[in-house]
Design goal:
Helix content is about 80%, strand content about 0%. By secondary structure, the chain is mainly α. The protein starts with 9 loop residues before the first helix and ends with a helix. It has 6 helices and no strands. The chain is globular. The longest helix is centred in the last third of the chain and has 26 residues.
């Protein structure tokens, strides 16, 4: 079963990924500039984590399910549950740790090499912002 990932407006997708990128790059000035906005939205980084993790770990309709695919799905669910709980119970300190956790996941699972984490995050950001824009365009078109 696929958990439902809420769609975010493009500017929030951009904000979340930019924060993760700034933390990963060690760009303290950008982290400090974005932190107040991110901290006001404690659910933002957990949703960004969902956008990164679910496509990799969730059961797919494209392949025949097996024991490994169910385990991978459950590991993804547990990983995201832990991030959500972290954000809920320690919101004032959670953002940098969640950002580092997202970047680590990208580095270990999605990047071609550990040095490609920033590039992989930038690609994910661009893809997710574009998808968010497409959702907005579809909703606007439906209301015309």
């Amino acid at each position: 079963m696929f958990p439902i990932v809420p769609s975010l407006p493009p500017h929030l997708v951009q904000l979340g990924f930019d924060y993760v990128l700034a933390v990963e790059a060690g760009d303290d000035a950008t982290v400090a500039r974005l932190a107040p906005e991110v901290e006001q939205l404690p659910g933002l980084l957990p949703v960004i984590a969902e956008l990164v993790v679910f496509p990799v770990t969730a059961l797919s309709d494209d392949t025949e399910p097996c024991a490994d695919s169910f385990v991978l799905d459950e590991v993804g669910v547990i990983y995201l549950m832990a991030i959500r709980e972290w954000a809920r119970h320690v919101p004032e300190a959670a953002a940098p740790g969640i950002a580092r956790t997202i970047a680590h996941f990208v580095g270990q699972v999605l990047a071609n090499a550990p040095t490609d984490v920033v590039r992989a995050l930038q690609t994910l950001r661009d893809e997710q912002v574009e998808q968010a824009r497409a959702v907005v365009a579809t909703v606007v078109a439906l209301h015309r």
